[in-house]
Design brief:
With 177 residues, this protein is of the alpha+beta class. Helices cover 27% and strands 7% of the residues. The chain has a 3-stranded antiparallel sheet, with no helix packed on it. Strands 2-3 form a two-stranded parallel ribbon.
């Protein structure tokens, strides 16, 4: 037991001495871990404190990055912004960086094929029932599918013979389902 008390006393003396060294020039705002650096570790400690996961960081006197008397997620955000170079200082009066708008390039939407509505006529491909497909066409694809045309057809419809245009992908007799 005496060894444990001695170790705890030693750690307390080191902490107080370290904190005193830092605070000689004023607190190192944002250094919640008392390691002499302001970084994401300090930000994490502050968030853990704010969430109630830990009672307080190692240096609560430094954790208040904006000097407003409260340790919360704003202090954590300020530390991250300071580390990223978005703000120049921490301490009383420091505020969050204002987001800058960047112009996002406009993307051209992908071309959606326009379905070809084929009206029944005397010359329809005999393998397809319920639609009239020109038997002399080079290719048909299902509208909304991944095919490249040049002609598109809406489904579903019956495939009753050889599937010349491969419109019945699973072979169940129904095209463009």
């Amino acid at each position: 037991m005496p060894k444990v008390l001695a170790a705890m006393s030693f750690l307390l003396i080191i902490r107080v001495a370290f904190a005193a060294r830092i605070s000689a020039g004023g607190p190192l705002y944002g250094d919640a871990s008392c390691d002499g650096n302001v970084n994401s570790i300090d930000s994490t400690l502050i968030l853990q404190t704010d969430a109630g996961l830990i009672d307080e960081p190692a240096c609560p006197e430094n954790a208040d990055a904006n000097g407003n008397g409260t340790i919360n997620s704003i202090d954590s955000t300020l530390i991250l912004q300071y580390g990223a170079g978005l703000i120049n200082r921490l301490g009383p009066g420091s505020t969050l960086a204002t987001p800058t708008r960047t112009r996002t390039p406009t993307r051209t939407p992908p071309r959606t094929p326009t379905p070809v509505i084929v009206t029944p006529g005397p010359s329809c491909h005999p393998s397809y029932s319920g639609v009239c497909l020109d038997p002399s066409a080079s290719d048909y694809d299902c509208a909304g599918g991944s095919g490249n045309g040049p002609l598109y057809i809406e489904g579903p419809f019956q495939v009753v013979g050889p599937d010349k245009f491969d419109l019945d992908g699973d072979g169940d007799g129904v095209g463009c389902e």
